[in-house]
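Incident review: delayed structure delivery

Summary: a single-chain prediction request sat in the queue longer than the usual turnaround. Root cause was a stuck worker, restarted by the on-call engineer. No data loss occurred. The affected request and its eventual output are reproduced below so the record is complete for anyone auditing the incident later.

Affected input:
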Amino acid sequence: MALIPLLQEPELRPFLPLLYVAWADGDLSDAERALIHARIAAQPWLKPRLREALTAWLLPASPPDAQALASLRSAIVAAAPTLSAAARHSFAALAESMAALDPNGRDAVAALEDELGFELSTLQLPVADAPPPPLPPRFDARVLQSVLDGRFADARASARAFLSEPGNRALYGTAPKPYREQVFGWLGDLAKRGFGALAFPGVTTDASRGLGPFLAVFETLGSGDLSLVVKFGVQFGLWGGSIYYLGTDAQRQALLPKVANLEAPGCFAMSEVGHGSNVADLETMVRWDEGKKCLVLHTPAESARKDWAGNAAMHARYATVFAQLEVGGVRHGVHAFVVPIRDEQGQPHRGVRIGDCGHKLGLNGVDNGRLWFDHVELTRDALLGRYATVTDDGQYQSPIESPGKRFFTMLGTLVGGRIAVASAGLSASKLGLAVALRYGSARRQFGATSQPETLLLDYPTHQRRLFPHLAQTYALHFAIDEAREAFLALGPDDDTREIEAHVAGVKTAATWHASAALQACREACGAQGYLSVNRLADARADADIFTTFEGDNTVLLQLVAKGLLTGFKQQFSKGGAWGAVRFVAGQLRATVAQTNPFTSRNTDEASLRSADMQLAAVRFREASLLSSVARRLSKRLKAKGTDSATAFLEVQEHLLAAAQAHVEVRVLSAFINGVQRASGPEREALNRLRELHGLCVLERHTGWFLENGAFEAGRARAVRRLVPTLFGEVRPDVLALVEAWGIPDACLAAPIAYSDPAHPRW
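Output delivered after worker restart:
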């Protein structure tokens, strides 16, 4: 029998007496089988292979023989003495529930009692061993979930329903090839359910709600298998999104319905091995051939190969290829082209070479590939023509005269992708914290000898590990919401530069936070956090790439810094760096003087908790850093022989510090605004978290505030002392705060996330 080799698995122990009693009379009734199936279905943490083994034991056509039953009985007898009184009580309850269905089951229970040496029917949980009851929640998690879900709650509910189905649970320990096929199968299921169509409002769905439902679905799917999330984003967000944003109406109508239903799987081929983030200098070339009246795509050197294209190694039949366009000997910059790369049988087209990037640190359900092109001939309509076309007589035309503006307009397609990556990182953080905080609320270790051991989550050091990440996750939830709403509010002809910088900053914060939070969660769960079944190991590995995916975070922070220096004002495009420096130096000198509220010795608790004080503090730091970097730039630009590029390189680290300070302002401000979306006890719970998040930011930068005279020593000590106080205030809320994220139980398929404090399974 399939179960015999698995009898030592701790996860199976609760089922052993139930199975033994059920089969002891040689028959398994429909009622008994239904009860066992219900027990199995109610345990989302149970490994798939253990589910399969249990299911095999329930087949009426192949009952266990006497030897198998003897092995099962021996496993029960061996396991019972190792269990705590609480676990033995749970052990007994399962056998009793089966015996109640069938009078013959009572005899099997009696026989089992003889071997165990105690009576199952009278075994009680000793009162002395009972841990104290959990702290009652101070707010309704369902009410808070409705606040967090926002205006696209219906889309989130649909995604949660998909994730809750048993066949859609995240995989682990699967070889890359079957893993990729499973992920592609899931993607097809999502397409059939209409999730892909949400990516193209006005073409495949009604335009009234815009991209909001699609982005909400993407974020929610992040609670499940992250390979599926990335595959979903590549197919519908990048490949389909490039057509949606850069294509003509005719191109959109012809291609997007096929993209939405997965009839046309594709990839997004922008990055090159030799250039990475430097899109403007891509080497891949498309030239207009006047004689053949066609476009010719070519990879001129190995450094120009397209790299890391998700979907390319196995499944994509098309690619959006970004390449330099040359018409009549004149280069017009980077443009996007739709290129068929495989036929319907999966074979590469002539002139197309496809490679596999290979095994990765994580996301091995995504088939990242490499592409080379050898003088591939394309028709004129391969050029996505919203912003540029080539006429049949070989003339280049564009409604945007400036090459620079045209380039950045085309790159505006990446904004939605960066919001999606930020939200996927946030979902991974939520998943990790849900597992770690639930585990810490049930796992006990050390304590007074005469008392039950102390819960991990009651140790201040454990709170220090996890609570700042919990608060920052909530802060980032509202920051991503604000960035998403700003993106959704854009008109078709709006300048996207400000929102690009906004989204870039939020993306860096969310993805760096995901890496740090998941590492903290893994460590906080000890060896249990290292087990794949508990989801932290794969979540940490899968989310790691988000810090460089859709833009390296350090490069993106430079985009944020550039936006700050120019003030997002068009007039600086003429004034260059000098104009930017004059503006920043003049404006921020006054700002710093007006916004430093910290030189007093005010250390009262109400002031430190105040949203106004916390926001003023981080704004002061931002303004001060920006003002000083402007002065440094001005000094260098006035020096003879120093060009602007050299000057900016010399202050690059200072620029990044100013950019990060700006992002901290954005995130805290969004959290303050988000608190106002709730009312009653839910608002109070959010405000406690906001107080904690703001103080943790100030504590992190205490050295800077002291160095710059914004804090005196007493104020710095007061901040440090108040943070642990807030840990204690947040402690009763943590499980309800996790529940409010609405993560489906099937996504938390981790034994340590489902342990009853009275009956731990680990």
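Verification: The first strand starts at residue 266 and ends at 269.
Action items: add queue-age alerting; document worker restart procedure.
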